Amino acid sequence: MSSAFKAVCLLSGGLDSSVCLALARSQGFECYALSFDYGQRHRVELESAARVALSLGAAQHLVVPIDLRVFGGSALTSDLAVPKGRSASQMTAEIPVTYVPARNTVFLSLALAWAEVLGSPNIFIGVNALDYSGYPDCRPEYIEAYECMANLATKACVEGRMGLKIHTPLICLSKAEIVKLGAQLGLDFSLTHSCYDPDESGRPCGQCDSCLLRRKGFEEAGVRDPLNQVFGF
Fold it and tell me: Which pTM does this prediction carry?
């Protein structure tokens, strides 16, 4: 396959990144899935990422270890409490404590490195700027700025052998629209994981921002979430 049709796809194992990978595959890309073991409290998501990558026929799936716990600063990488039971207005009132400092910048940098090695001009990331928790590194202006920087920062781009494109097909979709798209693409939602604060067995808490946004998306889309049957939340 031509390198022009290869794509590095960031894959957390969550709903958005899984739909994004499914969409890239449906568009004919040979997908190289990239996940991160960054010290997240919801590390169980990596098991979901492996299942999704296998189910969707990723050409390769890498899990890169980066311990962001050395910096902390987030409820996902420290002992800070994960907010529970918040309303939509509360979620968007300020940047929440579940924001991981510079996470997407770090992840995209490593995706960029792999893309350059693969000779792939395409990176897919499932960021969303509508039904989300207010993270600054999920906004269109951030992605545009990063893409500009990436095309200045790599040997392949400077030499004119490659022009990098960061694909964000979900960025302007509601969570319900993302669920509908996943259903149209035939994604097995039971393979995904969304919870920020699961118990030791991987059972979702059902009350963190991510769980509530997931529930809202499925309800508004009129699609049954298979995790509701499994975990009863």
Answer: 0.94
